[in-house]
Amino acid sequence: MSDTITLSGATLPDGRTRDVVLRNGRISVLRGPDHPYQRAFAGLDLAGYLLLPAPAEPHVHLDRALTWQPVGSDPDGRDGAIRSWRVRPARYGLGDLRRRSREALRTLTARGVTAVRTHLDIGDGRVPLRAVEVMAELRAEFHRVLDLQIVAMPAPGTTDRTIVDAVSAGARVIGGRPRLAPDCRQETRRLLRLADRAEVALDLHLDDGFDPRMLAVGDLARLLRASGFGRPVTASHLANLNRLSPSALGRVTETIAASRMRVVALPSPRGCGLPMRALLAAGVPVAAGGDHLRDTGHPMGRADPLATAAATGLAPDRAWAAVAGHARAVLGLESGGLEPGAPADLLAVRATSLAEALRTLPEDRIVIKSGHVIARTAPTRKVRVAA
What is the value of pTM for the model shown? Predict the structure, then answer.
């Protein structure tokens, strides 16, 4: 397989047309279309395609993916989806979990995603770490096409030992939903302590209920500054920020920015819809994730970064940064870009501009990982006109 490939005639987000030379897994050269080549390389014609830095998925639940049809959802209250899921997992064996997760990863890859962070429930059932163990196997299986990070999400009452064992089984991040514990503050401190002990990052679901009287994200931000915790920390959801007055929101966003934690928004019908503009204005780089893929939380989840970016409501360039550069930063990866030296993780879509791509969500896509084409979708269209 050649280590050098030229992407000819690609449209960049700023409207320029360029030939992009990829060498040894990175962008080597960007040339105007009339530049004379010194030597010929293997090429890919991208005329008519928009070339973008590849997106990442910073927040998805692969253990629940594709379970809507057999599981359904309890519509009663905010936590109906959580209850629906918890009474069903025992019905699924390891083979089913592996099949659904593999299909979800293939869908994400075909849509352009080259890095994924998945949150997996642990502590429930007779095999408390089965999801982590299966996903560790799939991480090895998919390592050539995407980077897969595993977050261990302990159920209420999960012991410290089980959480630490999840790290030994393959998790590289400790997660959690502190609001489901009897004492939210105490649970936040426990998970931070365990992440420090296991020497891994922390990624928590916070403030996704309906009670804005205590903002766990503010408590976490202050705790981080006081503790000197040195590993990456991410806060996801944060729906309660929407209930704050402008002055209170300003104070909280400043506290979050000072703590240097990372934030993931989930701008889907069942996501948090947090005030991304306020956080961005405070200097907090906000990523955006899909959260659910046709499961109890959202039966229409698409696993499509274009749809996630469009749902942010931001200007096209900022929307794409949320699912690309900022999302990769949450995963601790190089931010990527379209300049010499950047990783050659790229997505080409059939569109003339980023605004058009976010509006039309074209299925015609070419996915490039480390300088090699790993997926190509070319939809077939047939239209019959009545005589």
Answer: 0.90
